[in-house]
């Protein structure tokens, strides 16, 4: 094969591999047997050729997602207290179990954590139900009620004594009763996102919004990867300062409607301490979407597209070896063919 023809062949290879990428990196291109009959080309002693070594290993395709780190979406917090707001928390304030959500008529409205709202006053003896269990579990966690199965809780003497002790610690009247107007119930520990009311306003309503205390990443999934990125997949998150943390795709869904719709992924970060000082910022998420293991790998520029179709690799002697190609990722390609082995040296384009 002449030097001019080889130059043309390398140019064809680059275009052909680009087309392969567009059609799907997982496809395999067939190579005609004509490549085995290609004549040897004796290299000129003065010509220095770039070479590369065939490797055996794993090859992965990675999707890159642009995202942002933060506390996720905020939800309005419902307050049922009657009276006038005399104190409000600042944005960023923690709303954990027992914390003061706000003050109404200068009395604290504490936070309880639970999956069930307090939907009735607990004023009678012997009451049971999901709301009683929720309050009992909070009293146990706060140290006012002896630990037991919350499902068995009832408004007995021990329950009411625990409520009175809690009320005393808050500076409230010791009634032993508790009502929906006395507390704010949240599903989990939260933080104030935005205050939407002012001092002096009526308390009942949604005076602020709250988000989780856990930092997460929300990222846009490129259209071409929408069907490849799924819940449970491992991810790497590159922070604004360059650090890379491990994450897991929590869920993938569509946000927006019509032409404005976009596939978005939520990524959980296991090491929350590592992002304790990162309140917000742009991040890059990388997710492996396909992997092949224990295969022969060559650099893409080493591929030669043949006139009769297919691809070949050229060894140091100038002989062409027909190959089939598989996965293409990061400038490397999975190859297979007669005479192709690990540690084999092949000619590559500069």
TrEMBL record:
Principal place where this protein is found?
Answer: other
Keywords noted in UniProt: Coiled coil, Signal
Q: Where is the Peptidoglycan binding-like domain?
A: 128-176
Signal peptide residues are 1-30
Q: Name one GO cellular component term.
A: cell envelope
Compartment(s):
Cell envelope
Q: Where are the transmembrane segments?
A: none
**Descriptive protein name:** Peptidoglycan binding-like domain-containing protein
Q: To which species is this protein native?
A: Microbacterium oleivorans
């Amino acid at each position: 094969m002449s030097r001019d023809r080889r130059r043309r062949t390398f140019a064809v290879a680059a275009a052909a591999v680009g087309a392969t990428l567009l059609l799907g990196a997982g496809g395999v291109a067939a190579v005609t047997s004509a490549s085995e009959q290609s004549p040897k080309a004796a290299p000129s002693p003065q010509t220095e050729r770039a070479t590369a070594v065939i490797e055996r290993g794993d090859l992965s395709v990675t999707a890159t997602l642009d995202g942002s780190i933060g506390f996720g979406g905020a939800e309005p917090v419902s307050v049922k207290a009657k009276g006038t707001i005399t104190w409000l928390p600042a944005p960023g304030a923690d709303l954990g179990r027992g914390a003061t959500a706000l003050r109404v008529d200068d009395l604290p409205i504490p936070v309880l954590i639970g999956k069930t709202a307090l939907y009735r006053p607990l004023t009678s003896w012997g009451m049971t139900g999901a709301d009683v269990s929720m309050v009992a579990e909070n009293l146990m966690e706060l140290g006012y009620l002896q630990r037991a199965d919350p499902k068995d809780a009832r408004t007995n003497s021990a329950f009411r004594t625990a409520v009175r002790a809690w009320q005393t610690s808050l500076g409230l009247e010791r009634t032993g009763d508790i009502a929906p107007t006395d507390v704010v119930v949240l599903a989990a520990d939260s933080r104030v996102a935005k205050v939407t009311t002012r001092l002096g306003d009526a308390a009942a309503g949604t005076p602020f919004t709250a988000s989780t205390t856990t930092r997460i990443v929300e990222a846009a999934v490129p259209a071409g990867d929408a069907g490849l990125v799924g819940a449970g997949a491992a991810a790497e998150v590159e922070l604004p300062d360059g650090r890379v943390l491990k994450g897991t795709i929590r869920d993938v869904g569509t946000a927006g409607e019509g032409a404005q719709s976009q596939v978005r992924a939520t990524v959980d970060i296991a090491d929350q301490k590592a992002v304790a000082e990162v309140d917000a910022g742009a991040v890059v998420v990388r997710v492996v979407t396909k992997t092949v293991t224990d295969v022969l790998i060559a650099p893409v520029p080493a591929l030669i597209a043949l006139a009769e179709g297919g691809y070949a690799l050229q060894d140091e002697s100038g002989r062409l070896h027909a190959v089939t190609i598989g996965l293409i990722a990061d400038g490397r390609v999975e190859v297979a063919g007669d005479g192709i082995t690990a540690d084999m040296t092949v000619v590559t384009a500069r």
